[in-house]
Write a structure and sequence with these properties.
EC number: 3.6.1.66
Radius of gyration: 17 Å
CATH architecture: Alpha-Beta Complex
Organism: Ramlibacter pinisoli
Catalytic activity: ITP + H2O = IMP + diphosphate + H(+); dITP + H2O = dIMP + diphosphate + H(+); XTP + H2O = XMP + diphosphate + H(+)
CATH class: Alpha Beta
Binding site for substrate: 9-14, 71, 156-159, 179, 184-185
InterPro entries: dITP/XTP_pyrophosphatase, ITPase-like_fam, RdgB/HAM1
Shape: globular
Length: 201
């Protein structure tokens, strides 16, 4: 097994978080952009399928093992949506793409909705090769409620309106290290590191 693994993402935050967790295993995480790998199509309706297609794509182009993630917000009252469309949520309602617009659109759509339960979900998939029949799959879920208005300065995405009853605050009100320890991505990353240790090393 190569000591280098491709991350099928160019997101700096994801890279830093996963890199720090994989280093103790003697593994080096390389973002796909550094290897000139183009972004994969994400045609599917589930996080799992999109993460798998991204990981296989990066492994095929690089000849190395690859990890990919797909993540989003799943709102109970909307049957789990926006889900895989989370990043483009605002554009469905005539707003430009962007975190602030996403938050505004969500609060507008949830006006008068009493069931505020929602989960931020991160699905990480790892493959040793494009044909790997046994991909590693790690899922992290941070369950909370959609707040009635944004609060907090930290984080990104829907963090200002993702209220966590266990903390009594939104993700954006938590210190970054507390958020990362409890976030959907943090949970999935820790599981993935454990799976790599057990099955690949």
């Amino acid at each position: 097994m190569s000591s280098r693994i491709v991350l099928a993402s160019n997101n700096r935050g994801k890279l830093a978080e996963l890199r720090a967790m994989l280093e103790p295993l003697g593994l080096q995480l390389v973002p796909q952009g550094e290897l000139g790998i183009p972004e994969a199509e994400e045609p599917f309706r589930t996080f799992l399928e999109n993460a798998l297609v991204k990981a296989r794509h990066a492994a095929r182009y690089s000849g190395l093992p690859a990890i990919a993630d797909d993540a989003g917000l799943c709102v109970d009252a909307f049957g789990g949506l926006p889900g895989v469309d989370t990043a483009y949520y605002a554009t469905q309602f005539g707003y430009p793409k962007g975190d602030e617009h996403n938050v505004r659109a969500l609060l507008e759509q949830m006006r008068g909705v009493d069931d505020r339960r929602a989960a931020l979900v991160s699905t990480l998939v790892g493959v040793r090769s494009p044909e790997d029949p046994e991909p590693l799959v790690a899922v992290g879920r941070a369950v909370g409620e959609i707040a009635r208005e944004p609060a907090g300065e930290h984080g990104f995405g829907f963090d200002p309106v993702m209220f966590l009853p266990s903390f009594g605050r939104t993700f954006a009100q938590l210190a970054p290290e507390v958020k990362n320890a409890n976030s959907h991505r943090g949970q999935a990353a820790r599981q993935m590191v454990q799976l790599i240790r057990e099955r690949w090393l």
